[in-house]
Amino acid sequence: MSDFTPNRRSLLKGGASVLAGAATVSVDQLMGFATAWAQTSQWKPEAGAKINLLRWKRFVEAEDVAFMNIMQAFTKATGVEVNVTNESYDDLQPKASVAANTGQGLDMVWGLYSLPHLLPTKCIDVSDVADYLGKKYGGWAESANAYGKNKDGKWIGIPVACTGALMNYRISSCEKAGFKEFPKDTAGFLELCKALNKNGTPAGMALGHASGDGNTWLHWALWTHGGYLVDKNDKVIINSPETAKALEYVKALYAEFIPGTASWNDSSNNKAFVAGQLHVTCNGISVYVTAKREAKAIADDMNHAYMPIGPAGKPTELHLPFTMLTFNFTKYPQACKALTAFMMEADQYNPWLTSASGYLSSFLNASDSNPVWTSDPKNTVYRDVAKRTLTPGGLGTLGENAAAAIADFVVVDMFANYCTGREDLKGSIAFAERQAKRLYR
């Protein structure tokens, strides 16, 4: 993942150029489709419409260029001015909350995880957009329904894309540690981390407040041992033997990690991996994208794998979705719906996905055939992350409570408290239980 700070953007600038340079479509190239689309679209923008859109900061220049070209083509075809502002992961939610509370400043927010579910009464119903896109592009991945729909079955957000949180590893380091292929189970993964540390080629994953990296891998660790924050009725069940086993497992991993992971943010592991200090981590494909440009020897020596499977006996991954919401106080709801639908039409959506070099995958099934997934075999495992992902709700519903729990790092802090010795096993679980009960009361 990335925290998309200015330094981070500089690190990754142009990182997708090898693949995306030829794929980035200019505004002029988009205009033929855009003009025809605007004439026939069921969503007719209001006269004088202007849209203020907040999105996460770019991580690859080619992706940002492709996205802004889509915005410019939309403006030229419809006359709707689109003002795009960018914020880091950690600043998106506060900015969106301020707008929701004041009823001004923004029309749309392209946020992460379950942002629409933090603000469900402030979102317009976009079921017509979701139905249109689903019917045209092979249907939605099952997880899209959870991320997009409220408890009444209405779409309050459109899942635009998903970033995978999968294992990034150095091939030679794993082979030297005695593993010709990446372990498929948690027991094997722990043994790999022990051998890597012994060889001076350590693994490491964030235990700090890393909105992407910390939340994704630690929820996986909890779920793969059969532990969950709540049950299917949203009753808090974190205090369980399964949670205790997950804590013990992660503490054993932590003992083998590179020092400092308890304070890592979303950019820390990226930098350490590309610098040759880190040999296994959980991340999006951004490490590989950067290494191809700045450390070719590392890129040639790395690959990706699905998360190992633990006692649960099945994949229990959490990936990072980006969902678009439109506020119900906007003066231009039809223009906002038109923009959402337009940007996900295949003529510009597929080149945009390609420009991101595998960092973004689609919730729409038709996008599985995008050449980005087969042009480089190291990209392929990221293709299906939208289909594989669970949601922050776990066994429970993805509503305001679950959205608040992941935003407040309840699960992350539980693991960090135990691994760093701030709390013992019972104290760490009790702390998480109190936090969860406060949110789910």
From TrEMBL:
Keyword vocabulary terms for this entry: Periplasm, Signal, Sugar transport, Transport
Keyword DNA repair: no
Protein name, per record: Multiple sugar transport system substrate-binding protein
Sequence similarity: Belongs to the bacterial solute-binding protein 1 family.
Major location category of this protein: periplasm
Gene3D superfamilies (alphabetical): Periplasmic binding protein-like II
Lineage: Bacteria, Pseudomonadati, Pseudomonadota, Alphaproteobacteria, Hyphomicrobiales
PANTHER family cross-referenced by the UniProt entry: ABC TRANSPORTER PERIPLASMIC-BINDING PROTEIN YCJN-RELATED (PTHR43649:SF34), ARABINOSE-BINDING PROTEIN-RELATED (PTHR43649)
Pfam families associated with the record: SBP_bac_8
Compartment list: Periplasm
Organism domain of life: Bacteria
GO CC annotation terms, alphabetical: periplasmic space
